[in-house]
Amino acid sequence: MNAKRLIRGKAFINGRWIEGTNTFDVVNPASDTVVEKVANLTVTEVHDAVDAAYKVWSSFKISDTSQRASMLERWYQLIMEHKRELAEIITLESGKALADSLGEVDYGASFVLWFAEEGKRAYGETMPAPKISNRILTIKQGVGVVAAITPWNFPLAMVTRKIAPAIAAGCTVVHRPASQTPLTALALAILSEKAGWPAGVLNVVTGTDSSGIGYELSTNPLIRKLSFTGSTSVGKLLMKQAADNVKKVSLELGGNAPFIVFEDADMDAAVEGAMFAKFRNAGQTCVAINRFLVQDSIFDKFSERLADAVKALHVGNGLDDGVQIGPMINKNGLVKVQEHVADAIDKGARILTGGKVIEGLFYEPTVLVNVPENSLIAKEETFGPVASLFRFTTEEEAIQMANDTEFGLAAYFYSNDVHRCWRVAEAIEAGMVGVNEGRISFAGAPFGGIKESGVGREGSRYGLDEYQEIKYINFGMADR
Protein backbone atom coordinates (compact mmCIF):
# COMPACT_ATOMS: atom_id res chain seq x y z
CA MET A 1 0.00 0.00 0.00
CA ASN A 2 1.39 3.39 -1.03
CA ALA A 3 0.25 4.98 2.21
CA LYS A 4 2.97 3.30 4.28
CA ARG A 5 5.61 5.89 3.38
CA LEU A 6 3.44 8.67 4.86
CA ILE A 7 2.46 6.82 8.04
CA ARG A 8 4.45 8.01 11.03
CA GLY A 9 3.74 7.49 14.73
CA LYS A 10 5.73 10.38 16.14
CA ALA A 11 4.49 13.82 17.15
CA PHE A 12 5.93 16.89 15.38
CA ILE A 13 7.25 19.76 17.51
CA ASN A 14 9.52 22.60 16.42
CA GLY A 15 10.62 20.71 13.33
CA ARG A 16 11.53 17.54 15.25
CA TRP A 17 9.77 14.19 15.35
CA ILE A 18 9.02 13.25 18.97
CA GLU A 19 8.53 9.64 20.10
CA GLY A 20 7.04 10.39 23.51
CA THR A 21 7.37 8.22 26.58
CA ASN A 22 4.25 6.17 25.83
CA THR A 23 2.17 5.30 22.79
CA PHE A 24 -1.46 4.60 21.93
CA ASP A 25 -2.95 2.44 19.19
CA VAL A 26 -4.69 3.80 16.11
CA VAL A 27 -7.21 1.14 15.13
CA ASN A 28 -8.87 0.53 11.78
CA PRO A 29 -12.60 0.39 12.69
CA ALA A 30 -13.35 -1.81 9.67
CA SER A 31 -11.00 -4.62 10.68
CA ASP A 32 -10.30 -3.90 14.37
CA THR A 33 -6.56 -4.10 13.62
CA VAL A 34 -3.84 -1.71 14.77
CA VAL A 35 -2.67 0.60 11.99
CA GLU A 36 0.12 2.29 13.95
CA LYS A 37 1.29 3.09 17.46
CA VAL A 38 1.44 6.85 18.00
CA ALA A 39 3.25 9.04 20.53
CA ASN A 40 1.05 9.71 23.55
CA LEU A 41 2.30 13.11 24.68
CA THR A 42 1.98 14.56 28.14
CA VAL A 43 0.57 18.01 28.86
CA THR A 44 4.13 19.17 29.61
CA GLU A 45 5.22 18.19 26.10
CA VAL A 46 2.23 20.04 24.65
CA HIS A 47 3.23 23.08 26.71
CA ASP A 48 6.70 22.86 25.12
CA ALA A 49 5.09 22.87 21.68
CA VAL A 50 3.24 26.08 22.54
CA ASP A 51 6.50 27.69 23.67
CA ALA A 52 8.16 26.70 20.39
CA ALA A 53 5.31 28.07 18.32
CA TYR A 54 5.41 31.36 20.22
CA LYS A 55 9.16 31.80 19.72
CA VAL A 56 8.86 31.19 15.98
CA TRP A 57 5.88 33.54 15.68
CA SER A 58 8.06 36.58 16.48
CA SER A 59 9.80 36.16 13.13
CA PHE A 60 7.07 34.44 11.13
CA LYS A 61 4.55 37.22 11.74
CA ILE A 62 6.70 39.64 9.74
CA SER A 63 7.26 37.25 6.83
CA ASP A 64 6.20 38.42 3.39
CA THR A 65 2.67 37.65 2.27
CA SER A 66 4.11 36.16 -0.91
CA GLN A 67 6.34 33.86 1.15
CA ARG A 68 3.37 32.51 3.09
CA ALA A 69 1.41 32.08 -0.14
CA SER A 70 4.29 30.10 -1.65
CA MET A 71 4.41 27.88 1.45
CA LEU A 72 0.73 27.04 1.04
CA GLU A 73 0.97 26.56 -2.71
CA ARG A 74 3.81 24.09 -2.31
CA TRP A 75 1.86 22.26 0.43
CA TYR A 76 -1.14 22.09 -1.88
CA GLN A 77 0.97 20.63 -4.69
CA LEU A 78 2.37 17.95 -2.41
CA ILE A 79 -1.07 17.07 -1.04
CA MET A 80 -2.35 16.55 -4.57
CA GLU A 81 0.76 14.59 -5.59
CA HIS A 82 0.13 12.24 -2.65
CA LYS A 83 -3.66 12.21 -2.98
CA ARG A 84 -3.99 8.42 -3.16
CA GLU A 85 -1.71 7.78 -0.18
CA LEU A 86 -3.50 10.36 1.95
CA ALA A 87 -6.89 8.92 1.01
CA GLU A 88 -5.74 5.44 2.01
CA ILE A 89 -4.59 6.74 5.39
CA ILE A 90 -7.94 8.47 5.93
CA THR A 91 -9.75 5.21 5.18
CA LEU A 92 -7.42 3.11 7.31
CA GLU A 93 -7.94 5.17 10.45
CA SER A 94 -11.51 6.48 10.01
CA GLY A 95 -13.10 3.61 8.08
CA LYS A 96 -14.78 5.80 5.46
CA ALA A 97 -15.08 4.53 1.90
CA LEU A 98 -12.03 5.25 -0.26
CA ALA A 99 -14.17 7.20 -2.73
CA ASP A 100 -15.20 9.50 0.14
CA SER A 101 -11.57 9.80 1.25
CA LEU A 102 -10.39 10.75 -2.23
CA GLY A 103 -13.10 13.40 -2.30
CA GLU A 104 -11.97 14.65 1.09
CA VAL A 105 -8.42 15.15 -0.13
CA ASP A 106 -9.68 17.29 -3.01
CA TYR A 107 -11.97 19.21 -0.68
CA GLY A 108 -9.33 19.71 2.00
CA ALA A 109 -6.67 20.77 -0.52
CA SER A 110 -9.04 23.37 -1.96
CA PHE A 111 -8.85 25.33 1.30
CA VAL A 112 -5.06 25.44 1.07
CA LEU A 113 -5.15 26.87 -2.44
CA TRP A 114 -7.96 29.28 -1.57
CA PHE A 115 -6.14 30.79 1.42
CA ALA A 116 -2.84 30.92 -0.46
CA GLU A 117 -4.58 33.47 -2.66
CA GLU A 118 -6.87 35.05 -0.08
CA GLY A 119 -3.92 35.94 2.16
CA LYS A 120 -2.84 38.37 -0.54
CA ARG A 121 -6.15 40.19 -0.19
CA ALA A 122 -6.18 40.92 3.54
CA TYR A 123 -7.00 44.54 2.81
CA GLY A 124 -7.19 47.37 5.31
CA GLU A 125 -9.02 50.64 4.76
CA THR A 126 -8.46 54.37 4.79
CA MET A 127 -11.17 56.52 6.35
CA PRO A 128 -12.00 60.22 6.39
CA ALA A 129 -10.46 61.93 9.42
CA PRO A 130 -12.29 64.53 11.50
CA LYS A 131 -9.38 66.94 10.94
CA ILE A 132 -7.42 67.69 7.80
CA SER A 133 -4.20 67.22 9.77
CA ASN A 134 -4.90 63.52 10.41
CA ARG A 135 -4.86 60.35 8.34
CA ILE A 136 -6.81 57.31 9.55
CA LEU A 137 -6.31 53.76 8.35
CA THR A 138 -6.65 50.13 9.42
CA ILE A 139 -4.38 47.14 8.84
CA LYS A 140 -4.90 43.43 9.51
CA GLN A 141 -2.34 41.38 11.40
CA GLY A 142 -2.17 37.72 12.44
CA VAL A 143 -3.61 37.11 15.88
CA GLY A 144 -0.64 35.05 17.16
CA VAL A 145 -0.22 31.42 18.14
CA VAL A 146 -3.23 29.33 17.13
CA ALA A 147 -4.47 26.16 18.83
CA ALA A 148 -6.40 23.95 16.42
CA ILE A 149 -8.35 20.94 17.69
CA THR A 150 -9.87 18.75 14.99
CA PRO A 151 -12.30 15.78 14.94
CA TRP A 152 -11.99 12.27 13.57
CA ASN A 153 -14.66 12.36 10.87
CA PHE A 154 -12.71 14.58 8.43
CA PRO A 155 -9.09 14.00 9.47
CA LEU A 156 -7.68 15.98 6.52
CA ALA A 157 -10.24 18.64 5.58
CA MET A 158 -10.80 19.87 9.13
CA VAL A 159 -7.03 20.28 9.44
CA THR A 160 -6.43 22.25 6.26
CA ARG A 161 -9.51 24.40 6.90
CA LYS A 162 -7.85 25.69 10.09
CA ILE A 163 -4.13 25.58 9.32
CA ALA A 164 -4.26 27.20 5.87
CA PRO A 165 -5.88 30.49 6.98
CA ALA A 166 -3.69 30.61 10.08
CA ILE A 167 -0.52 30.35 7.98
CA ALA A 168 -1.87 32.83 5.42
CA ALA A 169 -2.45 35.33 8.25
CA GLY A 170 1.08 34.90 9.63
CA CYS A 171 0.17 32.77 12.66
CA THR A 172 1.95 29.69 13.97
CA VAL A 173 -0.07 26.60 14.88
CA VAL A 174 -0.25 23.92 17.56
CA HIS A 175 -2.58 21.26 16.20
CA ARG A 176 -4.14 18.48 18.23
CA PRO A 177 -5.85 15.89 15.99
CA ALA A 178 -8.40 13.42 17.33
CA SER A 179 -6.74 10.40 18.93
CA GLN A 180 -8.78 8.09 16.67
CA THR A 181 -7.32 9.65 13.50
CA PRO A 182 -3.93 11.33 14.04
CA LEU A 183 -2.10 9.68 11.15
CA THR A 184 -3.55 11.92 8.45
CA ALA A 185 -2.51 15.03 10.36
CA LEU A 186 0.99 13.64 10.82
CA ALA A 187 1.17 12.85 7.10
CA LEU A 188 0.27 16.48 6.39
CA ALA A 189 3.07 17.52 8.74
CA ILE A 190 5.49 15.35 6.75
CA LEU A 191 4.39 17.18 3.60
CA SER A 192 4.76 20.59 5.27
CA GLU A 193 8.30 19.64 6.19
CA LYS A 194 8.92 18.52 2.61
CA ALA A 195 7.49 21.84 1.43
CA GLY A 196 10.21 23.64 3.38
CA TRP A 197 8.09 25.25 6.08
CA PRO A 198 10.18 26.85 8.88
CA ALA A 199 10.54 24.71 12.00
CA GLY A 200 7.93 25.48 14.64
CA VAL A 201 5.39 27.08 12.31
CA LEU A 202 3.30 23.88 12.42
CA ASN A 203 3.35 21.59 15.45
CA VAL A 204 1.24 18.43 15.72
CA VAL A 205 0.69 17.13 19.25
CA THR A 206 -0.84 13.67 19.64
CA GLY A 207 -2.29 12.10 22.76
CA THR A 208 -5.25 10.54 24.48
CA ASP A 209 -5.49 13.01 27.37
CA SER A 210 -8.23 15.04 25.72
CA SER A 211 -9.23 17.04 28.78
CA GLY A 212 -5.65 17.77 29.85
CA ILE A 213 -4.46 18.82 26.40
CA GLY A 214 -7.67 20.78 25.82
CA TYR A 215 -7.19 22.64 29.08
CA GLU A 216 -3.58 23.50 28.20
CA LEU A 217 -4.49 24.78 24.74
CA SER A 218 -7.49 26.79 25.95
CA THR A 219 -5.78 28.40 28.96
CA ASN A 220 -2.14 28.89 27.93
CA PRO A 221 -1.73 32.69 27.69
CA LEU A 222 0.71 32.39 24.76
CA ILE A 223 -2.12 31.07 22.60
CA ARG A 224 -4.27 33.89 21.26
CA LYS A 225 -6.72 31.91 19.13
CA LEU A 226 -8.54 28.61 19.67
CA SER A 227 -10.31 26.86 16.80
CA PHE A 228 -12.27 23.73 17.70
CA THR A 229 -14.51 21.36 15.76
CA GLY A 230 -16.33 18.75 17.80
CA SER A 231 -19.19 18.21 20.21
CA THR A 232 -21.21 21.04 21.70
CA SER A 233 -20.50 19.93 25.27
CA VAL A 234 -16.73 20.02 24.77
CA GLY A 235 -16.96 23.27 22.83
CA LYS A 236 -18.79 24.95 25.70
CA LEU A 237 -16.13 23.80 28.16
CA LEU A 238 -13.28 25.07 25.98
CA MET A 239 -15.08 28.38 25.51
CA LYS A 240 -15.38 28.80 29.28
CA GLN A 241 -11.72 27.94 29.79
CA ALA A 242 -10.56 30.27 27.02
CA ALA A 243 -12.51 33.15 28.56
CA ASP A 244 -9.95 33.55 31.34
CA ASN A 245 -7.45 34.85 28.78
CA VAL A 246 -10.12 36.42 26.53
CA LYS A 247 -8.92 34.35 23.58
CA LYS A 248 -10.36 34.65 20.14
CA VAL A 249 -12.48 31.51 19.65
CA SER A 250 -14.02 29.69 16.69
CA LEU A 251 -16.29 26.74 17.42
CA GLU A 252 -17.96 24.42 14.92
CA LEU A 253 -20.17 22.20 17.05
CA GLY A 254 -23.09 19.80 16.83
CA GLY A 255 -25.99 19.88 14.42
CA ASN A 256 -29.51 18.58 13.92
CA ALA A 257 -29.95 19.28 10.23
CA PRO A 258 -33.47 19.25 8.76
CA PHE A 259 -34.12 18.26 5.14
CA ILE A 260 -37.51 19.53 4.01
CA VAL A 261 -39.21 18.09 0.93
CA PHE A 262 -42.19 20.13 -0.24
CA GLU A 263 -44.87 18.67 -2.50
CA ASP A 264 -43.68 20.80 -5.45
CA ALA A 265 -40.09 19.50 -5.21
CA ASP A 266 -38.21 17.72 -7.97
CA MET A 267 -38.33 14.23 -6.50
CA ASP A 268 -35.29 12.90 -8.35
CA ALA A 269 -33.15 15.87 -7.29
CA ALA A 270 -34.36 15.58 -3.70
CA VAL A 271 -33.44 11.90 -3.44
CA GLU A 272 -30.03 12.53 -5.02
CA GLY A 273 -29.32 15.42 -2.64
CA ALA A 274 -30.53 13.36 0.32
CA MET A 275 -28.22 10.45 -0.47
CA PHE A 276 -25.14 12.68 -0.43
CA ALA A 277 -26.13 14.85 2.52
CA LYS A 278 -27.21 11.89 4.67
CA PHE A 279 -25.02 8.91 3.83
CA ARG A 280 -21.60 10.37 3.08
CA ASN A 281 -19.14 8.83 5.58
CA ALA A 282 -21.95 6.59 6.85
CA GLY A 283 -23.82 9.64 8.16
CA GLN A 284 -20.91 10.66 10.37
CA THR A 285 -20.66 14.30 9.28
CA CYS A 286 -21.57 17.46 11.16
CA VAL A 287 -23.87 18.62 8.34
CA ALA A 288 -25.51 15.22 7.82
CA ILE A 289 -29.29 15.25 7.65
CA ASN A 290 -30.76 14.22 10.97
CA ARG A 291 -34.47 14.85 10.28
CA PHE A 292 -36.29 14.41 6.97
CA LEU A 293 -39.42 16.55 7.02
CA VAL A 294 -41.65 15.43 4.14
CA GLN A 295 -44.97 16.99 3.15
CA ASP A 296 -47.84 14.61 3.80
CA SER A 297 -49.11 14.53 0.21
CA ILE A 298 -45.82 13.08 -1.12
CA PHE A 299 -44.62 11.28 2.01
CA ASP A 300 -45.23 7.71 0.83
CA LYS A 301 -43.78 8.31 -2.64
CA PHE A 302 -40.64 10.01 -1.36
CA SER A 303 -40.03 7.45 1.39
CA GLU A 304 -40.29 4.57 -1.10
CA ARG A 305 -37.92 6.26 -3.55
CA LEU A 306 -35.43 7.00 -0.79
CA ALA A 307 -35.62 3.46 0.57
CA ASP A 308 -34.94 2.02 -2.89
CA ALA A 309 -31.81 4.17 -3.20
CA VAL A 310 -30.65 3.26 0.31
CA LYS A 311 -31.08 -0.49 -0.34
CA ALA A 312 -28.59 -0.20 -3.20
CA LEU A 313 -25.77 1.12 -0.99
CA HIS A 314 -22.79 -1.22 -0.66
CA VAL A 315 -21.48 -1.65 2.90
CA GLY A 316 -18.00 -2.93 3.70
CA ASN A 317 -14.33 -2.22 4.27
CA GLY A 318 -13.64 1.19 2.78
CA LEU A 319 -10.57 -0.08 0.90
CA ASP A 320 -12.61 -2.63 -1.07
CA ASP A 321 -13.86 -1.77 -4.55
CA GLY A 322 -17.37 -0.39 -4.79
CA VAL A 323 -17.89 0.18 -1.07
CA GLN A 324 -19.97 3.26 -0.28
CA ILE A 325 -20.66 2.84 3.44
CA GLY A 326 -17.97 2.01 5.98
CA PRO A 327 -18.22 1.26 9.71
CA MET A 328 -19.06 3.42 12.69
CA ILE A 329 -15.92 4.95 14.16
CA ASN A 330 -16.20 2.98 17.42
CA LYS A 331 -18.50 0.99 19.70
CA ASN A 332 -19.98 4.10 21.31
CA GLY A 333 -21.03 5.42 17.91
CA LEU A 334 -22.67 2.11 17.03
CA VAL A 335 -24.51 1.92 20.36
CA LYS A 336 -25.92 5.42 19.91
CA VAL A 337 -27.34 4.50 16.49
CA GLN A 338 -28.91 1.34 17.93
CA GLU A 339 -30.44 3.28 20.81
CA HIS A 340 -31.94 5.92 18.52
CA VAL A 341 -33.47 3.35 16.19
CA ALA A 342 -34.85 1.25 19.04
CA ASP A 343 -36.36 4.33 20.72
CA ALA A 344 -38.04 5.44 17.49
CA ILE A 345 -39.51 1.97 16.91
CA ASP A 346 -40.78 1.77 20.48
CA LYS A 347 -42.58 5.10 19.95
CA GLY A 348 -44.29 4.07 16.71
CA ALA A 349 -41.81 4.47 13.85
CA ARG A 350 -41.56 1.80 11.16
CA ILE A 351 -38.47 0.44 9.36
CA LEU A 352 -38.60 0.51 5.56
CA THR A 353 -35.10 -0.89 5.14
CA GLY A 354 -32.09 -1.69 7.32
CA GLY A 355 -32.21 -1.37 11.07
CA LYS A 356 -29.63 -3.99 12.03
CA VAL A 357 -25.98 -4.43 12.89
CA ILE A 358 -24.29 -6.36 10.09
CA GLU A 359 -21.11 -7.32 11.95
CA GLY A 360 -18.46 -5.58 13.99
CA LEU A 361 -19.03 -1.84 13.72
CA PHE A 362 -21.04 -2.00 10.49
CA TYR A 363 -24.69 -0.89 10.56
CA GLU A 364 -27.20 -1.33 7.75
CA PRO A 365 -28.19 1.92 5.99
CA THR A 366 -31.65 2.50 7.40
CA VAL A 367 -34.86 4.35 6.56
CA LEU A 368 -37.43 4.97 9.32
CA VAL A 369 -40.86 6.39 8.53
CA ASN A 370 -43.55 7.99 10.69
CA VAL A 371 -41.00 8.93 13.31
CA PRO A 372 -42.66 10.76 16.24
CA GLU A 373 -41.45 14.18 17.33
CA ASN A 374 -40.82 12.98 20.89
CA SER A 375 -38.21 10.42 19.81
CA LEU A 376 -34.51 10.76 20.69
CA ILE A 377 -33.63 10.96 17.03
CA ALA A 378 -35.70 14.14 16.70
CA LYS A 379 -33.63 15.97 19.31
CA GLU A 380 -30.17 14.37 19.28
CA GLU A 381 -27.60 14.06 16.50
CA THR A 382 -27.58 10.38 15.48
CA PHE A 383 -24.27 10.47 13.56
CA GLY A 384 -24.97 7.28 11.66
CA PRO A 385 -26.55 5.89 8.45
CA VAL A 386 -30.16 6.34 9.57
CA ALA A 387 -32.70 8.42 7.61
CA SER A 388 -35.62 9.40 9.86
CA LEU A 389 -38.74 10.67 8.12
CA PHE A 390 -41.30 12.96 9.79
CA ARG A 391 -44.56 14.20 8.26
CA PHE A 392 -45.76 17.80 7.97
CA THR A 393 -48.75 19.46 6.32
CA THR A 394 -48.07 23.20 5.85
CA GLU A 395 -45.04 25.35 5.12
CA GLU A 396 -45.42 27.05 8.48
CA GLU A 397 -45.41 23.69 10.25
CA ALA A 398 -42.25 22.63 8.38
CA ILE A 399 -40.41 25.78 9.40
CA GLN A 400 -41.51 25.37 13.02
CA MET A 401 -40.32 21.75 13.06
CA ALA A 402 -37.01 22.65 11.39
CA ASN A 403 -36.29 25.37 13.96
CA ASP A 404 -37.38 23.31 16.97
CA THR A 405 -33.82 22.57 18.09
CA GLU A 406 -31.05 24.30 19.99
CA PHE A 407 -28.77 23.66 17.02
CA GLY A 408 -28.43 25.66 13.83
CA LEU A 409 -25.59 24.41 11.65
CA ALA A 410 -26.98 23.24 8.29
CA ALA A 411 -30.44 22.89 6.76
CA TYR A 412 -31.72 21.74 3.39
CA PHE A 413 -35.00 21.97 1.51
CA TYR A 414 -36.39 21.21 -1.93
CA SER A 415 -39.09 23.21 -3.71
CA ASN A 416 -39.69 24.53 -7.23
CA ASP A 417 -41.65 27.57 -5.99
CA VAL A 418 -39.21 30.49 -6.12
CA HIS A 419 -41.26 32.56 -3.69
CA ARG A 420 -41.31 29.70 -1.18
CA CYS A 421 -37.58 29.22 -1.63
CA TRP A 422 -36.87 32.78 -0.50
CA ARG A 423 -39.37 32.65 2.36
CA VAL A 424 -38.10 29.38 3.79
CA ALA A 425 -34.41 30.13 3.27
CA GLU A 426 -34.78 33.33 5.29
CA ALA A 427 -36.99 31.75 7.96
CA ILE A 428 -34.82 28.71 8.76
CA GLU A 429 -32.49 29.20 11.73
CA ALA A 430 -29.21 27.81 10.43
CA GLY A 431 -25.82 29.15 9.42
CA MET A 432 -25.96 27.32 6.08
CA VAL A 433 -28.98 26.50 3.93
CA GLY A 434 -29.00 24.32 0.83
CA VAL A 435 -31.91 25.19 -1.47
CA ASN A 436 -32.40 22.33 -3.95
CA GLU A 437 -28.80 21.36 -3.17
CA GLY A 438 -27.31 18.69 -0.92
CA ARG A 439 -23.65 19.66 -1.40
CA ILE A 440 -23.29 22.97 0.36
CA SER A 441 -19.65 23.36 1.37
CA PHE A 442 -16.75 24.72 -0.68
CA ALA A 443 -13.67 26.76 0.17
CA GLY A 444 -15.06 30.10 -0.98
CA ALA A 445 -18.20 29.93 1.21
CA PRO A 446 -18.45 30.65 4.95
CA PHE A 447 -18.94 27.40 6.90
CA GLY A 448 -20.41 27.65 10.39
CA GLY A 449 -23.52 27.65 12.52
CA ILE A 450 -25.70 29.70 14.84
CA LYS A 451 -27.29 29.00 18.22
CA GLU A 452 -25.50 26.10 19.94
CA SER A 453 -23.86 24.97 16.72
CA GLY A 454 -21.01 27.38 17.27
CA VAL A 455 -19.44 30.76 16.60
CA GLY A 456 -17.23 32.00 13.78
CA ARG A 457 -16.85 30.87 10.19
CA GLU A 458 -14.37 28.74 8.26
CA GLY A 459 -13.59 29.09 4.58
CA SER A 460 -14.17 32.24 2.50
CA ARG A 461 -12.74 35.66 3.32
CA TYR A 462 -14.52 35.48 6.68
CA GLY A 463 -12.44 32.42 7.51
CA LEU A 464 -9.27 34.48 7.14
CA ASP A 465 -10.70 37.22 9.38
CA GLU A 466 -10.95 34.65 12.19
CA TYR A 467 -7.13 34.56 12.38
CA GLN A 468 -6.53 38.30 12.19
CA GLU A 469 -6.86 41.37 14.35
CA ILE A 470 -7.80 44.79 12.99
CA LYS A 471 -5.42 47.54 14.02
CA TYR A 472 -6.55 51.17 13.74
CA ILE A 473 -3.80 53.76 13.10
CA ASN A 474 -4.30 57.52 13.44
CA PHE A 475 -1.52 59.61 11.89
CA GLY A 476 -1.22 63.14 13.21
CA MET A 477 0.45 65.41 10.65
CA ALA A 478 1.94 68.88 10.77
CA ASP A 479 -0.58 71.66 10.29
CA ARG A 480 -1.07 72.42 6.63
Draw up the topology in text.
Layout: E1 11-13, E2 16-18, E3 22-28, E4 33-40, H1 43-60, H2 65-81, H3 83-94, H4 98-118, E5 125-127, E6 134-142, E7 145-149, H5 157-169, E8 173-176, H6 183-194, E9 202-204, H7 210-219, E10 223-229, H8 232-243, E11 248-252, E12 257-261, H9 267-279, E13 289-295, H10 299-311, H11 331-346, E14 350-353, E15 357-359, E16 362-363, E17 366-369, H12 376-379, E18 386-392, H13 395-403, E19 407-408, E20 410-414, H14 418-427, E21 432-435, E22 450-451, E23 454-455, H15 460-465, E24 468-476
Parallel strand pairs: 7-8, 7-10, 8-9, 10-11, 12-13, 12-20, 13-18, 17-18, 20-21
Antiparallel strand pairs: 1-2, 3-4, 5-6, 6-24, 11-23, 14-17, 15-16, 19-22
Helix pairs in contact: 1-7, 2-4, 2-5, 2-6, 3-4, 3-6, 4-5, 7-8, 9-10
Question: Largest sheet, order of strands side by side?
Answer: 14-17-18-13-12-20-21
Largest sheet: 7 strands, mixed
Structural class: alpha/beta
The assembly state of the depicted protein chains is: single chain
* Helical segment count: 15
Given as residue ranges, the uncertain stretches (5+ residues, pLDDT < 50) are none
Number of domains: 2
CATH fold name of the largest domain:
Aldehyde Dehydrogenase, Chain A, domain 1
In total, the number of strands is 24
- What would CATH call the architecture of the largest domain? 3-Layer(aba) Sandwich
Strand % is 15-25%
* Percentage of residues in helical conformation: 25-40%
Mean pLDDT metric = 97
What's the shape? globular
CATH class of the largest domain: Alpha Beta
InterPro entries: Ald_DH/histidinol_DH, Ald_DH_C, Ald_DH_CS_CYS, Ald_DH_CS_GLU, Ald_DH_N, Aldehyde_DH_dom, Aldehyde_DH_Superfamily, Succ_semiAld_DH
Protein name: NAD-dependent succinate-semialdehyde dehydrogenase
Pfam families: Aldedh
Keywords: Oxidoreductase
